Amino acid sequence: MKKFALIISFILFLTTCVGCAGTPNVNETISSDYVYSSNISTVDDANTTNTNKTTTVTDGGIYTFYSKTNNKYLSFNGNNLVLSDNACKWQFKYVQNNGYNVYAYETDLMFDIDNAYVAQGTTVKLWQLTGYDVQIWNVSKNANGTFTFLYNGNHSYCLGFNGSRAELQLRDTNNSMQEWELTDISANEPKQYLEFASKNNIIKLQLPLDILNVISEARLQQWAQELEKAYYTFYELTNYKPYETIVVEAYKPSKYIGWVIDNSNIIHIDSTFIVDDLRKMASRKSDWNFCALHEMGHMFDMNRPWNFETELLTDLKLAYVLETNNVAAAPSEFDASTVFYGADIINAYNILGTDFSKNYDIFGATERFMKIKNDIGWEPFKKTFQNLQANEKLYSGYSKQQKFKKFVEKLSEYSGKDIKSYFSSDEWSTILNHCA
Known about the structure:
By secondary structure, the protein is of the alpha+beta class. 28% of the residues lie in helices and 23% in strands.
């Protein structure tokens, strides 16, 4: 069985998972109807402006930041922000609510408020993605043409310097140490990936430059539209929208095949894996790609107080997407000649799953819920997900076992069936033990 991994805060949690071999996953906080128009663009992480944003910087754009007061550039030394005579390259990655992650270019390090402590004088440094909102910044243009980096969670605070130390400061329009001249150097940088955006800009695919060797431009544009439709189908099931835009970042090497993290709108997929996986997808009919759907599905249950088992729930929701849209997918364990259409995804879970009466198995448990669905239909599941979502605050203090029992209780209520009776006593105990 393959593994997913998830980074929450600064800790890496590994859990057994589905569909993307060796992939990280999102754990709880404890990982056509469309017109297909070709929007391919070769970009350097630039030129993908979201017209809904008020900022003048460009999503994915590469810039230098210059302080006229100090005659210095913003640079870094390890994890520390420093002022330097030498220009450093910085890259904006749009998150949501007009906010960006600000990366040191070609690194995985971004602006971060130390220890998530929002207060005057807290160090601002560089850190890897954690999902905390203290890594999200707004770019505010000042009357004099300079820019200030405001903390997205509270615009009273911004990035400033106290001597040579970068820190969080209360915004002071008379403090020029909080103001930067931005120079866009995107056009001078080597191209990094091919980008395809869906019709409503909900999905952005960022793929290796050589991806057209295995799949056509038209098919990739179609896939962006398909993932947008999947997004709306997940919403139809759960009545929850996690992000206004989801980025499938698949042009970088990764230790894990596919992964997501709480509070981040990025689906990370390893660049080598995506080439092979899209080669398979190109040879199949109506394949929407299991790996991307699986990771997107996590986004619709992460941080939900009712979430009792994220891997089971995401593959259950994935099955709803396939069946509702009458389309196909196949976990990465299968070769290019094998694909599962709609409700037939239960056969993939059956092949990969094992008996879970003694040892919990994600595929086995998901298959059981699929058999329950075959008996009662999707409507009780929709009502259950939407009821739990509408009343999510009630479950914030529940244990995972209590959450599982509540899920089964609501499913029984809406189906008129005793859902617990679909499990043997040993299977029931195994799930409860797993949720302990």
